[in-house]
Amino acid sequence: MEKRLLTLVSSSNLLRIFQTQVRMTTSFTDNPTWIQRMKMRFDLLDADNNGILGNADIALVAKNIATYRNEGPDAEKYYFKIMQSITLADEQGVTEKEFIEQAKKFVSQPDAKEHVKKLADMVFEVVDANKDGVISYEEYSQVYKAFNASQEMIDAYFKAADSNGDGFIDPSETRESYLKYFFSA
Ligand SMILES: [Ca+2]
Ligand SMILES: [Ca+2]
Ligand SMILES: [Ca+2]
Prior knowledge:
mainly alpha; binds calcium ion
């Protein structure tokens, strides 16, 4: 009896069924790689590095972008509004832990992928400073520098987003990289 049970347990069929069940019940948002990516996102967005992501960070970044581009308060206000809706920042702000919970909820919505595509289009609008329909390395660097991102990070992100390697990021590459960023482990 015991021997038969052992044979059954070690059978590859049973193992396969078990693995399928594990895969079905585990979401990519539980994956350490995904959580680490969201932690890095929090670190980037928390521009003043006080451990809270809120309006203060977004205001700082909006000011930086407008300053780099020699633009006035209207542009700054516009950047603030766009980035606020992208990051869901508010006056009170969130901690890293709250931010990750927020991100988990966000990607679990039934229409989350459509939301992320819209979000990617909004980001594209802001980053494409000269409005020629593509993001150059300079345009990309400028915005990430406004968040105090390291050159290493900027280079890695740009390379990953420019999937056809032509040196520019187009709107479809932005959508593609955002979908990958939020929906894969
Ligand atoms: Ca902050
Ligand atoms: Ca451009
Ligand atoms: Ca490209």
